[in-house]
User: What shape does this take?
Amino acid sequence: MHGKELRWLVVFKRKYQGLSAEVVHEHLLIPECTQRRWLSFLKKYNDVFPPRVKKRGRPAKLDALDVIKLLKRVVDSPTTTMARHRAELVLAGGRTVSISTLCRVLHENGISRQRVRPALYGRAAARPLTVATHRHVCRCSTSLASVMRKRPATFGWSL
Assistant: This one.
């Protein structure tokens, strides 16, 4: 990508100094077809850059205010399920959004999902009991793993 100054320099040399495309190519190493394109932009739009087109595609399901509300709800109650957050969003705004869309928005804002195991009593309570589901990394000992598999896990959000 060429900078704005370089584009204007090429246009200046070609249009106002009257240099040929070959000479400008030797001096600035810009191909002749690129020089022609920049000159056509200048002629058509009165600038060396074409105007930016609007973003294409489907409009976003959640606007900025909905994202802020969702982040606040997740931070306030991290153990609430995504189905509950989805239902609250439908009741508040009347929009139907999939759970994967909510997870994607949270991931884009730096909140990742993890499984939180219930605390055990005794020596096991002092050990770390979180298991990151997206990396499949278990931080607990192998003797505890069999005990913990029997206990149900709840899902929360790491903040």
Observations:
- Strands lie at 112-116, 130-132, 137-138, 154-158.
- The longest helix spans residues 32-45.
